[in-house]
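Bug #77: duplicate submission created two jobs. Keeping one. Sequence:
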Amino acid sequence: MDEFVRAVEATVFAATEPVTLDEIALHVGEGDVPAALVVLAETYASHGIQLVERGGRWHFQTAPDLAHLLRRTREEPRRLSRAAIETLAIIAYHEPVSRAEIEAIRGVQTAKGTLDVLMEAGWVRPAGRREAPGRPLLYATTAEFLRHFGLGSRRDLPGIDDLKAAGLLDPLDDGLIQLQLESAGEDD
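Kept job's structure:
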């Protein structure tokens, strides 16, 4: 396989999405890109992955006769709603926390489904009941939450200064968070 064909192979392989002939040519320079793609398609025809063209775009895919092997193990990325992200953050920073406390901090009601999604993900667990009227259920994060987010412990959660440095807080958010932290400190 000559260097030009290898360069085309590397370009298609490294692309995050299927690429057009023009996009490949931008990376590899002058040469017969269509001919190189034909060579690669023939080379990979009997392998576990194949080079295919769909709608004028080229990409590698699993050979159709082997796709069933990957369907069982493929993990779908979890997409959390904004409510779920806010709820998870509140639980992580204030645990153990009741649903009423979560709602008080968020300023809106929390759907039961939101907590169910977080528990199904293995990131939140019931953590007992508060000794108060109605004995509300308390929620806390799990070891899976720490592992998934690369934290050694809850102490490794980013603080306000870290969030500011990352540009994740605007001045209004900063003031609200500071008030919430101060009120949480009064409860302890």
